[in-house]
Write a structure and sequence with these properties.
5-stranded antiparallel beta sheet, mainly beta, 6-stranded antiparallel beta sheet, 330 residues
């Protein structure tokens, strides 16, 4: 009887080798995933690590040239990540510091480097403005704030040799008011009609006040001219007439004429007695005249026009209260 053949011996080496491939791949993928997760975690940790804050004060100046801002140190302020919160005439805007890169000229706003916030030259943040305040942040952290400053430039300039009132220092809201108009035919005759027109372009064109009706002799009328831009030249043309008196005279504050006085705060007031039964100049113009010093009492942003329609300015009839107009800038 023959013995049954022995079963061949199994070799497991080949089987183990075949299993190593997928298991190793899975392990490798796991390692990569773990490393990637670790990288993300470490990146977030590094990003949230506190950084040294920027330490600097600031200085602002507001002159006739404009509004300028500079850091006073000790640190420079990096351009990247820094923001200026500019409050201009009551309106706040967030402005990246990079907006001023041309003025800064580098990666940091260095101590003592002035930035033009308000000014007429190229690169300034705004061409016009009367009040400004700036707060500076770097990487969302407070650096410094400068107090609000208001322009010291006058709202107007009075033209040499004329009464033209040139608006300066930006756009202003302008109010025109009739203080009064006292002119009679003779010492005790009837009151004359006085009408007025105003101009904002130096006399190139005029618009009638109050529909062309005579102004109130006792004043109290006003007209708001709205927002008037810098460079506008304001003036008033006054006309006094009375047919029964054969009188009809017209003078404008734009022209160089001694019949119209354009006065500001502290200027000498005309020291003339009122003519006939007309109200005294001092009482008529209260509170615009200091009768003790005989000077004008006005706000720095006010200018007043005094008209005399009589031909002979040396006569007793020349009291410069025939028409009085007040401009107020705000």
């Amino acid at each position: 009887m023959e013995a049954a053949p022995r079963a061949p011996r199994r070799r497991f080496a080949t089987d183990r080798g075949a299993a190593t491939g997928p298991i190793g791949g899975i392990l490798l993928i796991g390692i990569v995933v773990v490393l990637a997760a670790l990288f993300v975690v470490m990146t977030q940790v590094l990003r949230t690590q506190p950084h040294d804050p920027v330490e600097s004060g600031g200085k602002a100046t507001f002159t006739g040239e404009g509004y300028y801002l500079e850091p006073s140190g000790p640190d420079d302020i990096p351009v990247a990540g820094s923001t200026l919160f500019i409050t201009l005439d009551g309106v706040q805007t967030a402005v990246p510091l990079s907006t001023f890169s041309a003025q800064i000229g580098g990666p940091a706003w260095t101590v003592g480097t002035r930035l033009c916030i308000i000014g007429p030259v190229a690169g300034c943040y705004s061409a016009a403005g009367r009040e400004a305040q700036v707060t500076v942040y770097s990487n969302r952290e407070y650096v410094f704030q400068v107090e609000a400053l208001r322009s010291q430039s006058p709202a107007f300039l009075i033209g040499a040799g004329s009464g033209g009132i040139t608006v300066s220092g930006g756009t202003w809201n302008v109010n025109l008011a009739i203080v009064g108009a006292q002119i009679t035919c003779g010492a005790s005759g009837p009151q004359m009609d006085v009408t007025a027109r105003y101009t904002q372009n130096g006399g190139s064109s005029y618009a009638s006040l109050f529909g062309g009706a005579p102004v109130n002799p006792n004043g109290g009328q006003s007209l708001n001219l709205g927002q008037v831009p810098a460079g506008s030249v304001l003036g008033v043309e006054g006309r006094a007439r009375l047919a029964s008196c054969s009188f009809d005279k017209t003078y404008t504050s734009i022209a160089s004429t001694p019949h119209v006085l354009t006065l500001k705060q502290g200027d000498a007031a005309p020291n003339r007695p009122a003519f006939g039964n007309q109200a005294l100049l001092a009482s008529f113009m209260q509170p615009y005249v200091n009768t003790y010093t005989q000077t004008m009492v006005l706000d720095r942003n006010q200018v007043i026009l005094l008209y005399e329609f009589t031909d002979d300015l040396n006569s007793s009839a020349a009291d410069f209260q025939d028409l009085v107009v007040l401009f107020t800038f705000s």
